[in-house]
Design a protein that fits this description.
Elements (H helix, E strand, L loop, with lengths): L10 E3 L7 H15 L8 E9 L4 E5 L12 H12 L5 E10 L2 E2 L8 H14 L4 E5 L4 E4 L17
Parallel strand pairs: 4-6
Antiparallel strand pairs: 1-7, 2-3, 2-4, 4-5, 6-7
Length: about 160
C-alpha cells in the first residue's frame, strides 16, 4: 500500500489593501454583484466576477429558486455568461464574495463542489490557470489556480 497526500496552497492576506489594483477592482465588482443576488430563501448573497484575457470583467450572482436545486451559484453564472459571450477568451482571475445580513462574511467563502468542477473544466479547456480571490472581513485567501480546490477533480485530459 502507498499513502498519498494532497495539499492546497493558499496565500492569506490580512486585508484587501494588500492586493494589487486589478484584484481589488475584481473584488469590488463581486461585492456589487452580490448586492443584486436573488436569494430570498437563504438570504445568503454571493457575487462573482471574472477578468477575461480581453480585459472584460463579467459578473454573476446566485439565483435561487423555490424548486431547489433549480437555482445557480454566482460562480457558474459568471463563468457560463463569460463563455457564452466571449467563447475564445480565457479567464485570468475570479473573485467570489459572500454576504449575510448585508455584510461580507468574516471568513472567505469557498465555491461548492459543482462550481469547483466547472472551474477546473474551464482551466482545462483553455489550458490556463484561473487565479481565485476569496475575500472575507478578517482576511483574504488567494489560490493561484482552482485545481488547488479539488486536486482529484474530473479532468477531460484524463480521458483516452
Amino acid at each position: 500500500m502507498k499513502t498519498l497526500k494532497f495539499c492546497t496552497l493558499v496565500h492569506e492576506y490580512p486585508n484587501l489593501s494588500e492586493l494589487g489594483e486589478d484584484d481589488i477592482k475584481l473584488v469590488e465588482k463581486a461585492i456589487e454583484s452580490a448586492a443584486k443576488s436573488y436569494s430570498p430563501y437563504s438570504g445568503f448573497r454571493v457575487g462573482a466576477s471574472v477578468l477575461l484575457d480581453n480585459g472584460k470583467i463579467i459578473c454573476g450572482n446566485n439565483q435561487e429558486n423555490s424548486a431547489y436545486p433549480s437555482g445557480l451559484c454566482a460562480e457558474r453564472v459568471a463563468i457560463f455568461y463569460a463563455n457564452a459571450q466571449f467563447p475564445e477568451s480565457r479567464i485570468i482571475s475570479m473573485a467570489v464574495v459572500a454576504k449575510s445580513n448585508e455584510k461580507i462574511t468574516n471568513k472567505p467563502v469557498y465555491p461548492c463542489g459543482s462550481c469547483r468542477q466547472v472551474m477546473i473544466e474551464t482551466e482545462s479547456r483553455f489550458q490556463s490557470p484561473i487565479k481565485l480571490i476569496l475575500p472575507g472581513n478578517d482576511h483574504v485567501h488567494i489560490l493561484e489556480n482552482v485545481s488547488q480546490l479539488m486536486p482529484q477533480g474530473f479532468d477531460k485530459r484524463l480521458l483516452p
